[in-house]
Amino acid sequence: SGVACTTLRRPCRTMILVNPHSGRGQALQLFTGHIQAMLTEADVPYTLVITEHQNHARELVRNADLSQWDALVIMSGDGLLFEVINGLMEREDWQQAIKTPLGILPGGSGNALAASLHHYSQSPPAWNEELLLSCGFMLCKGLVGPLDLVSVHLASGQRFFSFLSLAWGFVADVDIESEKYRHVGAIRFLMGTLVRLASLRVYQGRLATSTRHPPSLSSPPPGHVAPDASPKQPETQSNNATTSPVDSLLPGLDQPVPDNWTVVNEEDFVLVLAIYQSHLAEDLWTVPGATADDGLIHLFYVTAGISRPALLRLFLAMEKGSHLACGCPHLAYEKVRAVRLEPTSQQGMITVDGEVVEYGPIQAQIHPGMANLIRG
Ligand code: ADP
Ligand code: MG
Questions:
Q1: Which among 70, 78, 247, 293 is annotated as catalytic?
Q2: Of all atoms in ligand 1, which is nearest to the CA of residue 50?
Q3: What pLDDT sits at residue 3?
Q4: Dist. CA 79 → ligand 1 center (Å)
Q5: Which pTM value belongs to this model?
Q6: Cβ-proximal residues to 40 (8 Å cutoff; 6+ apart), any chain
Q7: Which of 71, 68, 81 has the alpha carbon at shortest distance from 19?
């Protein structure tokens, strides 16, 4: 792609975090069988860390001496990278920490970012071991480019960072319900889709979006005071340069959205999906035009009234990225930079990067190029 990439320093001291329970429980065997020799051959010195419990990686990265590492790589599904990114953002030195090059080796059952990276490298589609080898090869080449992050706020005041997706309704239900089929690998999403179609339901809520540009962190317009020279930065709260980035597009969740936002007319949805990478899963090419740092939240929603066969057709078409060409009147697609969702249905599921979050009002905005990613 046309993105300016830098190259990792050599030798590249790499921490590789492996979740032994991800996917079919074979991440460690896949690493030793396919990746280890490749890294040795390419002279990449690495330290293997096997996670022992949920949030182990998050805690480790939050407290690590990052001067010891040139790259942090996860061998798991998307869930482990979510931990690593949030661990980095919870640090006092988050501004530097989040610039640590991050890598991903698909070892889970949900490998959306790995599939997206492979796609961005303009290689023909690959699955399973072939996708793993492609990502291993990217790691050896060591090209680094920017990755957008999305800041997410919940009604409880919780705030975290997302690199992949925010889902409500059908997609979130499938993601979570299909976890019990994790042992079948990536096909769990198709199985979950078929099961969930049988109990298709409608979710009520309000959806609003903003297309305004957030002020850029990395490249201030000419004439602006460089962040380091000024005690009051535009993107950091008050006078403390170590607090996390301000979401300049987002009012408080208890406040109405500003007049310059667009409120979606529909209130009956089958699904709402905000996604910021090309793939939602290895075989779901959801956003044909997306790149890792296009600065966009790609918002899809499907409104009530869609038939089961039509919804199934959309997901089957997504394998080839042709769902937008289905002419489905219930499918909407918009490119936005901030989004707010206020469910009014009493029950439902919301996921962020495939992980369940507290159900209720939620809003998010893009931070273009906030992280760095090892890519093809
Ligand atoms: P998958 O794609 O198979 O779901 P993930 O990387 O998303 O794989 O991991 C699934 C969940 O397991 C995530 O919530 C992650 O935080 C958690 N996790 C990470 N390490 C461990 C561990 N050692 N034991 C149990 N759960 C873990
Ligand atoms: Mg997962």
A1: 78
A2: 23
A3: 62
A4: 6
A5: 0.92
A6: none
A7: 81
First to last CA, the chain: 9
Beta partners for residue 147, in sequence order: 371
Write down the residue that tokens 């960072």 correspond to: 161
Q: What is the token pair recorded at 109?
A: 């059952």
Closest ligand (CA of 182)? 1
Single out the residue of 97, 99, 95, 102 nearest to residue 117, CA to CA: 102
**What CATH number is given to the structural domain containing 87?**
3.40.50.10330
**What average pLDDT is seen over the chain?**
92
The pLDDT value given to residue 2: 53
Which of the listed residues 112, 147, 182 is the one where a domain comes to its end?
147
Q: Which two tokens stand for residue 237?
A: 């709260």
CA distance 333 to 312: 17
Residue nearest to atom 6 of ligand 1 (CA): 77
Residues 17-56: tens digit of each pLDDT: 999 999 899 999 999 999 999 999 999 999 999 999 999 9
**Low-confidence residues in the chain, pLDDT < 50:** 1, 218-240
What ipTM was estimated for this complex?
0.98
| CA dist list (Å): 367 to 146, 217, 324 | 11, 8, 26
Query: For residue 184, what is the DSSP state?
Result: G
Q: How far is the CA of 158 from the centre of ligand 2 (A)?
A: 20
Rg over alpha carbons for the chain, rounded to the nearest Å, is 20
d(CA 88, CA 276) in angstroms, rounded, equals 20
Residues 22 and 61 in one domain: yes
- For the CA of 76, the closest atom of ligand 1 is 6
Indicate the residue among 129, 147, 165 that finishes a domain: 147
Helices marked H in the chain: 27-30, 36-41, 56-63, 78-89, 94-97, 112-120, 128-141, 170-177, 188-198, 308-317
